[in-house]
Amino acid sequence: MDIIFDCPKCEQELAVESSGAGSEITCPSCGEKIVIPQAPSPAGYAGPPGAHDPAHPSSSIASSAAAKIEMHLKVPAHAKPTAALIEKPKAPLEVAAKESDKKMRVHTIRHTDCIEVGRDKFDEFVTNFLVKVGEANVISINPLTYTHLDIGTQKLLTDYAVMIVYRG
User: Fold this and answer.
1) Per the count of CB atoms within 10 A, which of 9, 88, 140, 145 is most buried?
2) Do the strands 2-6 and 119-120 form a parallel or antiparallel pair, or are they unpaired?
3) Taking a C-beta distance cutoff of 8 angstroms, is the pair 15, 52 a contact?
4) Distance CA 145, CA 114 (A)
5) pTM of structure
6) pLDDT digits over 105-154, tens only?
7) Would you list the DSSP string of 35-67?
8) What is the DSSP letter of 114?
């Protein structure tokens, strides 16, 4: 059971374990040397004048129901560092693109643009571009189908392309 008493100089309310009765302490509020009074007897209050009387509490906090509940709380001790309990959510793609030093870009390679003097160099163009960008920076590669007007024949032709989304 704790001994609850007031500092005779500054009237700060103090609580000390009953095993400390009779020993001298320093008031944490004013620095005055105080002798801890004896614990009150269960039959009645027998403390020195000016000490805390349990039957007549000196403050409204001491008379509250919370002050009468004795709690023994322990702080958990960990031998190793604790993991982060709250992780920050990852930034949305738009925010990540704005904050990074590399911006998201899109490059489309059309099949018709890769034909040189009857030779189809589409695969070479795509491979060279991907090597230049770097595998780690490629986000996605999407096939496309498109229609265009052939200038020579004035006909609509359907062809294919590839759209590459990358950081660069």
Assistant:
1) 9
2) unpaired
3) no
4) 15
5) 0.40
6) 999 999 988 988 889 999 999 999 999 998 888 999 999 999 988 888 89
7) EPPPPPPSSS--PPTTS-BTTB-SSTTTTSHHH
8) G
